[in-house]
Amino acid sequence: MHVNAFLESKLWSSGSEWLSKSEENWPRESPLEPVPEELMERETVAAGATCSGKYNAIFTRYSHFNKMLRVVAWISRFRRNCQSRRLGQPSCLNATLTVEELERSKGLLLRLVQSESYLQEIKDLHTGKLVSPRSTVRALNPFQDEQGLLRVGGRLQHSNEPYESKHPILIPGNHPFTKLLARHYHHKLLHGGPRLMLAVIREQYWPVNGKRLLHGIIRSCYNCTRTNPTVKQPMGQLPYARVTPSRAFSNTGVDYCGPVYLRAPHRKAAPTKAYICVFVCFSTKATHLELVGDLSTAAFMSALRRFIARRGKPSHIHSDNGRNFIGARNELHEIYRRLQNQSELNHITNTCATEGIRWHLIPPKAPNFGGLWESAVKIAKRHLQRQLRNSLLNFEEMVSVLAQIEACMNSRPLAPLAEDTSDLSALTPAHFFIGCSLHSIPDPNLRDIPLNRLDRFQRLQEKAQQF
Ligand SMILES: [Zn+2]
Question: Does the predicted TM-score (pTM) go above 0.70?
Fold first, then answer.
């Protein structure tokens, strides 16, 4: 109807004609009952909906695996009941779903998942061919079981393991079904870690790229993130001395750790205390350990002199200022108290200044400035605790152990190791002293061997290494 015709319509503006008349003139007859024969017979048509997206809508509609499973089980039961009614068979009218029904719906969903992700592989297997070499699951040697599900072939055919874990069902790691399944297992295993989850899931399913998926599930879990947050502290800029190439120990940090107990020369005498003075190079992370008898300034100056004699004079020495340890019941409080004492500090800085060494204290209440030497102290302590446990060493033995620990610390690679076997050996702080790691096997000296015999010598060397 046109808009104007509609607006001019009297039925619209004033209603039916009889409404304006008195009640006696109102129509009396009631609407006619429809005659069954005249009713249009309509055939019930079952319509299937297809999803235009990458995955079926059922996988993205629900956020819980069990709910999705139950919905599919109810739909399957409805379908089966419709078929039974047509065939005149009794329908299932139980209020609860049975295990078989849930298993059937799981199988249905798994077949749907596999047909969405591994259609080509299923086609190949149907035609009796092997899976294409370009397939991402070729290495898993997949096969189809009697239910039409793709399973991992593996090499455990003759083991006593259950069939499900010998040949787990193949599922793609990036499918929403797998994400729901992983989340379901995560809650079932009381927020278990990725290793536990993967081990349990693999008893039945084989999620391709499972590790990455499970790490993502844990990262997105509210409870897990709340209880174990991975806080990434924004790190400040590294100081100039740390990022500028310089001679080893040219810029040095110094700190103390201890006490360590030394066996007295006389058996009956009580063990004596000693401390370890740790020198760390800023540019190469090389470490030098010195054993000092006490926390006096004189003992520190002796240690510094020994360090300079062996490693060369540093141009800058950085140290803690003692204010970070206020209130801490630390044995080392003494040395920091001395550093706070202006006359003691003046003595140290003056002695250093005459040698051309500049002494720097880190800012107060900023222990993060001393991260490099704190880390060196931690590593030295760890080596010492694991090596010595409760054994008591005398002075000589302790000096030897410290030298060995120093060698271990100076043989640590400066960068993470690569998995590549063709990589060269890692760069260590020791490379800056002797050109190789302190623990590497020495190369043979070939200087005295005539040039024409070098090849033969190398062959002999290789042969010797084989035995
Ligand atoms: Zn969790």
Answer: no
